[in-house]
Amino acid sequence: MPRVTLEKDKTLNNIVDAPCGECKRSTKHKVLASIDLSGREETEETLIYGWDNEYQIIQCQGCETIMFRQSHMNSEDMEHVAGPTGWEADYVTFEDYFPNPEKSRTGLSDDHLLPEKLQRIGDFQPSCPNKTV
Ligand SMILES: [Zn+2]
Fold first, then answer.
1. CA 89: distance to chain centroid?
2. What's the superkingdom here (predicted)?
3. Whether the predicted model's global pTM rises above the 0.85 cut
4. How far does the centroid of ligand 1 lie from the alpha carbon of residue 131, in Å?
């Protein structure tokens, strides 16, 4: 059975870079609350499968807008990144923000006129942008 651990406010007051929908660019955000969940399935010597999920309420340090950030990593999704000594394997981080900062607020001001289902489609964004690279 996987072992799941939960840690509250582990990243409290950390500063993270995140896209801000109001500032329309990536800005510094302060973590106001966080939950870290991780699951490990392992034997004495070997990790079979592991995952880490982060849930954070973050606030833009420019315009003070508050949003929700969620990230996911696991031991099977790896990517190769250029490091100081060549290509290095690293875990892929999947990130999601709510509300979606890339959605134009002014462009969709008639949102309420659409049936609910269409609004959901309009909100849909690929949840794993890193994977397509
Ligand atoms: Zn902002």
1. 20
2. Bacteria
3. no
4. 27
Tell me, in angstroms, the distance from the centre of ligand 1 to residue 26's CA. 8
Which protein residues have their CB within 5 A of the ion that is ligand 1?
A: 20, 22-23, 60, 62-63
Q: What value does the mean pLDDT of the chain take?
A: 85
**pLDDT tens for each residue of 3-12:** 999 999 999 9
Q: How far is the CA of 66 from the centre of ligand 1 (A)?
A: 9
Tell the burial category of 118 from Cβ atoms under 10 Å away from its Cβ (0-12, 13-18, 19+).
exposed
Cα–Cα distance measured from residue 108 to residue 118, given in angstroms and rounded to the nearest whole number: 12
Q: How far is the CA of 54 from the centre of ligand 1 (A)?
A: 21
Nearest CA to 56 among 92, 121, 8, 108?
8
Structure tokens at 45: 């010597």
The tokens describing 60, both together, are 């833009």
Please report which confidence band the pLDDT of residue 70 belongs to, taking 50, 70 and 90 as the band edges. very high
* Cα of 125 vs its chain's centroid, Å: 13
